[in-house]
Amino acid sequence: MFGIELIDAAFLPAAAVALLAGVLSFLSPCVLPIVPPYLAYMTGIGVGGLKSGERSAVVPALFFVMGLSTVFIMMGIAASTFGRMLLQYQDILSRASGAVIIVLGLHFLHIIRIPILDSDARMDVGDKGGSSFGAYVLGLAFAFGWTPCIGPQLGMILSLAASGAEAGRGVSLLAIYALGLGIPFLLSAIFINRAIGLMNRIKPHLKLIERIMGVLLVAVGLALLTGAFTTFAYWLLETFPALANLG
Asked: How far is the C-alpha of 72 from the C-alpha of 178, rounded, in Å?
């Protein structure tokens, strides 16, 4: 239809959701407060030295983002593989994933509580601060160790990734999610003093950000449950025929 596979059109809203989820993950109560200490640890100096410009955190931050991106992209490959294996059951799996994501969204909205999502499973990476390799390892550990905390967001993106047959879909969506989480981290390292000031102003609003994430989860869950992503994909193609050139 229109010279493009439906999944290609559906990728556009899914990509927007993945990017927004990454940014909201960065702003979440379990990530934002640890950004300055992590940057300080990766550069091998204290937060005070970081603010005074004693050493730049940009290169370590870049390797940190590469580390967490490695894990997320591997998850994307796994999700795409899983989606292809169960292609004939994708409608059922999509609806089941939607129901689970709605429950996770209700947790963020504090309508129900899931205790495991209020914890983390941090990995001890040893004394590896102050080096690019250590920052990369820390990124790997962060992606694994903070999974209970950012798990609902990841689960949502993985569900969107598994809903298509294309191998590159999962990789692309998880890479976009990693960008949404990683770019603010890099900007924080580049503009450290301004970033710390901005973070201090954001902290009183962390609960609101958590609820916004909950609304996003519920909305995506409903879209998967009702097939609204498919409907929206058709609407995009009918409203913007130029999208057919993507295929």
From this structure: 7
Domain membership flag for residue 140: yes
* DSSP E strand stretches across 102-142: none
Number of domains in the chain: 1
Q: Is residue 42 domain-resident?
A: yes
Show the tokens assigned to 93.
Answer: 């799996």
Q: pLDDT grade, residue 2 (50/70/90)?
A: very low
Distance CA 65, CA 220 (A): 26
Q: Is residue 1 part of a domain?
A: no
Percent of the chain topping pLDDT 90? 17
**What is residue 154's three-state secondary structure?**
helix
- Over 70: is that where the pLDDT of 246 sits? no
pTM: 0.80
Residue tagged 């191998």 (tokens): 167
- 244 or 23, which is more confident: 23
122 located within any domain: yes
Rounded CA gap, 194 and 199, in Å? Answer: 9
Which residue range is the domain that position 161 belongs to? 6-246
Query: What is the number of H-type helices and E-type strands within the chain?
Result: 11, 0
**Rounded distance between C-alpha atoms, residue 80 and residue 78, angstroms:** 6
Looking at residue 117, what DSSP letter applies?
Answer: G
State the residue for tokens 């409903």. 222
CA distance 76 to 3: 26
